[in-house]
Amino acid sequence: MGDIVFWTIMRTAVVIPAVWILRSYIDSQQIWWLICFMSIYGIIIHPAIIHYKLFEQKNKDIIESTLCSSCKHFDKTAVLCMKHDKHPSMEFLPCEGIDWEPGYNQVDSDVKGNYSD
Ligand code: SF4
What is the atom index within ligand 1 of the atom nearest the CA of 73? Predict the structure, then answer.
């Protein structure tokens, strides 16, 4: 996730000055605005969306079907164990299950389960 943010910022840092410089070479203000919007979407926003979808797809199993996915220390947006500051994987749990604590979703489903009994 950090890579996605970093490269989005880098692309922004390149595109904004580039379109600003391009402004002096284009006579029509409307065409310049069109190029601006197309550049911002095509070079900054669209690649960020694509990379985020690939990130989600790549980490889907870790987010949905590891012990960490039900732990309160797990940050799904970064696929990070916040207690150990490490990224779990399908083969690696930073705490090996010792520090697992029920997450908010787990507590909710337990509470709902008790009401339905
Ligand atoms: S404490 Fe253990 S179970 Fe919980 S997120 Fe970290 S590594 Fe996973």
Answer: 5
Averaged pLDDT for residues 2-21: 93
Cα 74 to ligand 1 centroid, rounded to whole Å: 6
Complete DSSP assignment for 35-81: HHHHHIIIIIIHHHHHHHHHHHHHTHHHHHHSGGGGBTTEETTTTEE
Does the predicted TM-score (pTM) go above 0.70? no
Q: How many domains does the chain have?
A: 2
Domain enclosing residue 107, as ranges = 66-116
100 lines ligand 1 (CB under 6 A): yes
Residue-wise pLDDT for 73-88, tens only, equals 999 888 899 999 999 9
